[in-house]
Amino acid sequence: MARGVNKVILIGNLGADPELKYTPSGTAVCTFRLATSESFKDRDGNMQERTEWHRIVAWTKLGEIAAQYLSKGRQVFVEGSIRTRSWEDQSGERKYMTEIVARDIQFLGGGPGQGGQGGGGGYGGGQGGGGNDFGGPPSTDDDIPF
Predict the structure, then answer these.
(1) pTM for the complete prediction?
(2) Gap between the Cα atoms of 81 and 100, Å rounded
């Protein structure tokens, strides 16, 4: 039987500076919003543009590096997987949030104040090889700081 695939690849620009927090056990978690835009022709042949906003979460060392080097407007390549988590708010209502858990972030074109030149730098989240242990999300929601 074939396994499923959960893989997301995005290229877009940060909508705000990243936010770095630490779980109670000291695990780094960085979140940022990424805007992706696509152009298409509508029924009348007019060009339209649609922007989607994605919530990106980067854990451990990848999150620390993202928080250090990324800023609002910066263009990045993100590879990861879709995760939906749920919780109950203070009124007992069930809430859901869909996020992209980053495994790899590549720094692309510059943002404001960076001259628009691509830096080409990047940082992989440890997808095998290299002996790096950059981890992933905690195994329980009790360790998530938001």
Answers:
(1) 0.75
(2) 5
